[in-house]
């Protein structure tokens, strides 16, 4: 029986999905979990036959969903270490392989590529169409040279479970092996290193110091069960149908699926961010009966405290630690968690239902699967601005325009979302070049309807250094290229 993508809460060993999962790449339904990675961006230089044969050959190294599960089991039982590999192609990559156009993945953004700032995209909510070009407000002048070159594909290599130095050394060797296999067919455009950073509780953090990767759509029953440990799912259901992230692979057979990948290298200005938070905290304290500090101001920006606690969940007896089982039903006016905060902009948890009478299924269909990893220095308190530090943002989705682009454009960058005067996402909102964003409104007292709201402009501490849209095809498609 072939896979039904409307389903959720399935298991990897579900008999109906064995064919599909033997061909679906890993890291889609569940993160690969390794702490060290290399992203090897390449462009083809050979003829299309040679290009195809090389891809078919390295597809043997690509980790399927089933194999990822087996590797995880063997790691648990015998501490066996396995290299994890994903392979993805840009639309230009499909062209270089000589694939007929009707077999290209059809997403409009994928076909245009991220460097294209002229193709218009429909980024307004359904039924209100007004296509806009450059919906992300990207500025190619800020991009690193590597991303400005032609990128045909990327191989993601990841290792974990061993000593960091050993993992790094082994990954270097794997990159060299990959590069050697490409001779005469493709050249490495550049290699991006990534590494997970952790706090003292071993939770994953990003460079501003906040716990990251907490809230993600869940496809597997076992993962949903894990949420139970963090307070259950009575107030937020993280489960999502497979078609949030899986699409039929146009180059494969009935059981071949793939996903669209958004890759963005986002540099973080750690010193600038915390200096500005100090000023925000002082401004709020001057207008508030209580003193607030930069950590609290940071939670207003992110929507969560550094330890992951949602800011909307403050009780009389201190901060709760519910992690993901929350919504904004008790905070309909954004007095606890500001509407503009990053976590609320990117997952409004019912705000669009309250504000626009929009069906909850539409809001939920915008969700993306985040599989990013940090890059650069591990110094979280540098004394210089714009150090080599940031996030290699990777999101997976079934539709780049309706999910990632919609989220960044219509929610994060939109000063009128979810209400007029909300302001942009202070963390990742990207303003149009030469148009300074308006100030956001910040509550001076937590949850108090009579408290003053202070205008304060907070933005510009994350810069896009480049990126690309990819498709991560089925193994069946990759293997068929040898024919
Ligand atoms: C350097 C850039 C970024 C940083 C530092 C960052 C940081 C964070 C943090 C700390 C959280 C809260 C913890 C969690 O739920 O995982 C979060 C959540 C999230 N972020 Fe980001 N993020 C960045 C970029 C982005 C971008 C570009 C998007 C998409 C446009 C995005 C989408 C999301 C989503 C969907 C959530 C989960 C919200 C929820 O379900 O509650 N992030 N991010």
From TrEMBL:
It comes from the Bacteria. It holds the Pfam family DyP_N. SUPFAM superfamilies: Dimeric alpha+beta barrel (SSF54909). PROSITE patterns: DYP_PEROXIDASE. Residues 24-188 form the DyP dimeric alpha+beta barrel domain. One of its GO terms (cellular component) is cytosol. Keywords: Heme, Iron, Metal-binding, Oxidoreductase, Peroxidase, Signal. InterPro entries: Dimeric_a/b-barrel (IPR011008), DyP_N (IPR049509), Dyp_perox_C (IPR048328), Dyp_peroxidase (IPR006314). Residues 235-415 form the Dyp-type peroxidase C-terminal domain. GO terms for molecular function: heme binding; metal ion binding; peroxidase activity. Its cofactor is heme b. Belongs to the DyP-type peroxidase family. This is Peroxidase. The lineage of its organism: Bacteria, Pseudomonadati, Pseudomonadota, Gammaproteobacteria, Vibrionales.
